[in-house]
Amino acid sequence: MNFYEEKIFPAIIEKQMGKDNYKQERNTTLSNVTGKTLEIGFGTGLNLPHYPEHVKKITALDINPGMNSKAQERMQHAGIEVEYHCLNSEALPFETGSFDTVVSTWTLCSIADLDSALAEIHRVLKPTGEFLFLEHGLAEGATMKKLQNLFTPLQKKLACGCHLNRAIDQSIQESGFNIKNLERFWFKGATSPLASPMYRGVAKPIPMRAVYDDQNNKGLPYR
Ligand SMILES: C[S@@+](CC[C@H](N)C(=O)[O-])C[C@H]1O[C@@H](n2cnc3c(N)ncnc32)[C@H](O)[C@@H]1O
Question: I need a labelling partner for 112 at 20 to 30 A (CA). Which of 40, 104, 149, 188 fits?
Fold first, then answer.
């Protein structure tokens, strides 16, 4: 990681994504958290104050050690125990079927190998578990899509790998999830209008055998 990624970017995240309009969306998204919970792309821990009261412990991870100092400070005052790991969500060190809930907010945009990360989320969720996501991504309108495609290379440089043009729902579904409910909305106050088209939803893992059969034996392997 370079100086910008480790020092400057975490400070930008903390300032921009701690704003009130973000807080409101965090509250709504996290209200459905139940049971043993994993948060990927924990950042500076901005979700922590928004977990419902019944949540007493979470496991959290982030790839960027620069996010750690602010996150540690927040963890100390959160009233929630956090088992924190600095690691890549593309390869998780957790048992298969070990979480009831996995949470991701504004993170799927910047994971380099999204398919691997989603496969890992699928793996670590219990069959009854839920993946709660709140993500910006590909817009619905053609002009906006073109602009998102055009500016994604620049965005990736400025925002540590962030893609503006990911079809979040499609990626989640193609990784063996059934999206129970999906809310598409325009988020006012995002860093850029290109990052305003939002996807919020709850996805349930489809058992791997069913995914495999459904894809006519060309899809994901049996587990
Ligand atoms: C835009 S920030 C959002 C942080 C936090 N989720 C929030 O809502 O405030 C995206 C976060 O994802 C993390 N990230 C990116 N790729 C990752 C990966 N492969 N594994 C784990 N974390 C990752 C980044 O380091 C960053 O902290």
Answer: 188
d(CA 50, CA 82): 14
Point out the ligand 1 atom lying closest to the alpha carbon of residue 26.
8
Within 10 angstroms of residue 5's Cβ, the number of other Cβ atoms is 16
Task: Calculate Rg over the CA atoms of the chain.
Answer: 17
Going by C-alpha positions, the residue among 75, 29, 22 that lies closest to residue 52 is 29
Distance 67 CA to ligand 1 centre (A): 9
Q: Exposed (0-12), middle (13-18) or buried (19+): which is 100, by Cβ within 10 Å? A: middle
Tell me if 195 CB under 6 Å of ligand 1: no
Q: Which domains does the chain have, with CATH numbers?
A: 3-214 (3.40.50.150)
pLDDT for 69: 84
Cβ–Cβ under 8 Å, residues 34 and 101: yes
For residue 64, the CA-to-ligand 1 centroid distance in Å is 8
**Res. 75: pLDDT tops 60:** yes
Tell me the pLDDT tens digit for each residue of 81-138: 999 999 999 999 999 999 999 999 999 999 999 999 999 999 999 999 999 999 999 9
Cβ–ligand 1 contact at 41 (below 6 Å)? yes
pLDDT digits (tens, 9 = 90+) for 159-215: 999 999 999 999 999 999 999 999 999 999 898 999 999 999 999 999 876 665 665
Q: Can you give the pTM of this predicted structure?
A: 0.94
